Amino acid sequence: MNRRTIYIDESPIRFERWRKYLPSWLKRFLPSGGGNAEDHHGKAIFGFIVFLLSESIIFLSFIFTYVALRLTHSQHWLPPGISGPQLSTLVLINTVVLLSSSLIVQSAENALQHSRLNQFRWLWLLTIGMGSYFLIGQGIEWSKLDFGLSTGLVGSTFYLLTGFHSLHVLAGVIFMVTMLVRSFFPGNYHQGYFGVSAATLFWHFVDIVWVFLFSILYLWRD
Amino acid sequence: MTHEIRETAPPNEPENNWRQYFKFNTDHKAIAVQYMVTAFIFFLVGGLLAMLIRAELITPALNVVDRPLYNGLFTLHGTIMIFLWIIPFNAGISNYLVPLMIGAQDMAFPLLNAISFWMIPPGGILLISSFLLPNGTAQSGWWSYPPISLQIPPGQPINGECLWIISLVIIGISSIMGAVNFVTTIFWMRAPGMSFFRMPVFVWSALSAQLLQLINLPALTGALILLLLDLNFGTQFFKPLENGDPIIYQHLFWFYSHPAVYIMALPAFGIFAEVLPAFSRNPLFGYRSLAVASLGIALVSIFVWVHHMFTSATPSWMRILFMFTSMLVAVPTGVKAFGWTATIWKSKLHLETPMLFAMGGAAMFLLGGVTGVMLAAVPFDIHVHNTYFVVGHFHYIVFNTITMAIFAAIYFWFPKITGRMYAEGWGKLHFWLTFIGANLTFFPMLPLGLQGMVRRISSYDPQYQDGNVISSLGAFLLGVSTLPFIANMVGSWLYGQRAVNNPWHATGLEWTTTSPPPRNNFAEIPVVKRPPYDYGNPKYSVIEPTESDEQRRREIWER
Ligand code: HEM
Ligand SMILES: [Cu+2]
Fold first, then answer.
1. Most informative mutation of B145, B393, B454, B455 for ligand 1 (most atoms within 8 A of CB)
2. Which of A10, A51, A64 minimises the CB distance to B197?
């Protein structure tokens, strides 16, 4: 079956007229008037981005809960004798490692785009390593804190936010390991590489979320 | 001039491959049927619970069930009807229609589609199985407000509330995956020439509803995770005695659950927009306004949730603000209602079963909508909040409008789905029983609520008995009304007359393919050159009319 792209659109906003001036990444969100069914890669990435946007609402609902509780209960926020989460060097190094892994994962994807499969594998492995480093660091931080999950609102919200985020980091690592293994089976990436693009996007998502969590958890002082 | 609109003829024998519906199948049409039948079974379960509730309420005293069981009955009734009847049914009918209406061969992600469906039965069974637990089901209503929902006997990590939360999270994940699939399908899979403003209004409203799922449902999932942590893992988010804040739960809950009423209602509006033109032989009035109004309703409905919290210690600036936005919803909704009326205005109506259900549903939406706007007024709401007036209001929407629309859709697309015609007489009987039963059941609730009868109680002041008896009788009538429906569906699917491709002479791509459609929907991907709803305009037809089609058209319409 041939792919027939037909540019007709009677929408009052004359979609097709200004569509051609858009940057290509935006065009991806605004497919033209039909006939795109054969673009499997674009379709899958579109769906994945929609999913990530939706997923971010869960984080938003948790962040909303944290902010609302903290604003309305500031006098009870820290139970007596508890100092709350601290901005230690451990946390800082962890943050730097996680954020810089975004660059690595992007260059891994670029390497694959240019069919440099081995370079992709090394960079990909490096990202996996950095992600695992972050997870271990997070575990060490938890073990050093002087409060637990049921220690007042500070404990509930802190473990909720960092725990939910770590689950995402873990999912990202597992996702990337799967793609790494797949790369050793010949023929897997010859037709585009949806899984790699999706994992890269997911990793950026996890990083962006961490920027927000880091600011509200460690930088917010009353 | 009156003539039969419906046409029947014996075309090729459709294959009897019922086995496909019991398998893990990735065909969107099979998944759609799986969704719809599963949802209907849950509808019967939910209806049974409703009749038990109504049996208890015939007399003012407590005499049929005990109080914890009564609480469980209304909690599970509401949960099942919303999360296991209307929402999965809408997912089913949208699954059937969206690819066909936009000229696609399947959904964007067929495998994901099948996985989404197969999460529904386990979720539902888990929920209902909580009747078997020693302490019974969840008892705090479908909204599950803390702290009531957190009051469970100590030492019972597995309790009704916990099962309720887990099954809702499962169903929610299924809905999110479905929504990703629908939105991608509508954006990417349209046939050549199927521009946004050539999509039928049903597709527009499905798109709007699914966008709401994506934006709002995660807030409910988040709230449920927090509730589960509070319930079983010792956190304190919503525990007022430990500095937590139950009001935050209410915000998160209604941030999803008000849009949820439009997630349920928008596909119903879409069904009206398909059925009314077909049976009045008029183009849909104001197609573009109706299409855009779907998105408008979706957009405004994101910003109205606090009208459910007017009595939750909400500051008055917030009350006024949300009173205003809630009344604003009436504008795009009014556009819709106006469009439907203008479509059937001064036309020859063909009162087949789908049309009866659509007209009945649209008419009763008037009462549902008017009571909604009344409730949006803060002073009035403070008077009737948590009374039967609210119960009356939303049942006029969820049963008398949405469930009626669902029946309209079943009858309308039954020939397409099964390749058989249903029995018209049985359909009409079903309609009248449902229409009368629904009004008997839900109308008395409005005056009862105005007089002060509180909802969610199992015994009440004897002065309210008359209205309750009528309501209970109506509910039993509704129970009876499903019998002709089931008989009709099963009988017609097995032995009904063969249906032609387009028995209603309706426009829309789904009618251009065979009944039932082949595995890939269209023998060749259609190229769309015409606007939708071109009824009565002989120069238009969705596909190029062939010689014989044109002949048949003329024979039937120019008699
Ligand atoms: C013009 C549009 C509407 C307005 C202004 C409106 C307003 C309201 C208000 C203010 C309440 C809260 C009453 C109270 O608890 O005191 C309410 C309850 C409710 N409405 Fe509507 N409504 C509208 C349409 C709808 C639609 C279309 C649906 C369903 C599809 C719906 C379903 C419900 C439900 C389920 C409840 C009860 C929730 C509960 O308390 O358990 N409403 N409505
Ligand atoms: Cu509402």
1. B393
2. A10
Cα separations in angstroms, B230 against A8, A75, A78, A152, B259: 54, 21, 19, 12, 25
Q: What is the DSSP string of B461-511?
A: -GGGHHHHHHHHHHHHHHHHHHHHHHHHHHHHHHHPPBB-S-TT---SGGG
> Atom 20 of ligand 1 has which residue's CA nearest to it?
B394
How would you classify residue A80: left for phi > 0, otherwise alpha for psi between -120 and 50, otherwise beta? beta
A33 Cα to chain B: minimum distance (Å): 4
Find the helix or strand (DSSP H, E) in which A40 lies. helix A40-72
Token pair listed for B418? 């099964």
How far apart CA B76 and CA B130 sit, in angstroms, is 10
Cα–Cα separations (whole angstroms), residue A134 to A109, A146, A172, B157, B204: 21, 20, 12, 32, 44
Nearest CA in chain A to B292: A11
Which ligand number lies closest to the CA of residue B78?
1
CA–centroid distance, residue B374 to ligand 2 (Å):
12
How many whole angstroms separate alpha carbon B334 and alpha carbon B345? 16
What is the Å distance from ligand 1's center to B339 Cα? 22
Nearest protein CA to atom 33 of ligand 1, as residue: B394
Interface of B with A in 161-200 (CB under 8 A): 176-177, 179-181, 183-184, 187-198
Are A6 and B192 inside 8 Å of each other by CB? Answer: yes
ipTM of the complex: 0.90
Determine whether the interchain pair A54/B179 forms a contact, defined as Cβ–Cβ distance below 8 Å: yes
- Does the beta-carbon distance from A51 to B226 stay under 8 Å? no
> Does the distance separating the beta carbons of B197 and A9 come in below 8 Å?
yes
Contact predicate A152/B236, CB 8 Å: yes
Per-residue pLDDT of chain B (559 residues; tens, 9 = 90+): 334 565 555 445 545 577 778 888 889 999 999 999 999 999 999 999 999 999 999 999 998 999 999 999 999 999 999 999 999 999 999 999 999 999 999 999 999 999 999 999 999 999 999 999 988 899 999 999 999 999 887 777 789 999 999 999 999 999 999 999 999 999 888 888 788 888 999 999 999 999 999 999 999 999 999 999 999 998 999 999 888 999 999 999 999 999 999 999 999 999 999 999 999 888 888 888 899 999 999 999 999 999 999 999 899 999 999 999 999 988 998 898 999 999 888 888 889 999 999 999 999 999 999 999 999 999 999 999 999 999 999 999 999 999 999 999 999 999 999 999 999 999 999 999 999 999 999 999 999 999 999 999 999 999 999 999 999 999 999 999 999 999 999 999 999 989 888 898 888 899 989 889 998 898 888 888 777 887 765 544 444 444 454 454 444 443 3
Handedness of CA A105, A109, A110, A114 (dihedral sign): positive
User: Under a CB-based contact definition with an 8 Å cutoff, are residues B188 and B103 in contact?
Assistant: no
Looking at chain A, how many residues does it have? Answer: 222
Question: Which of B427, B468, B532 is CA-nearest to residue B6?
Answer: B427
| Residue in B with minimal Cα distance to A55 | B218
Q: Where are the beta strands (DSSP E) in chain A?
A: none
A residues 18..77 contacting B (CB < 8 A): 29, 31, 33-37, 39, 42-44, 46-47, 50-51, 53-58, 60-62, 64-65, 68-69, 72-73, 76
> Measured in Å, how far apart are chain B's first and last C-alpha atoms?
9
Rounded Cα–Cα distance for residues B325 and B210 (Å): 21
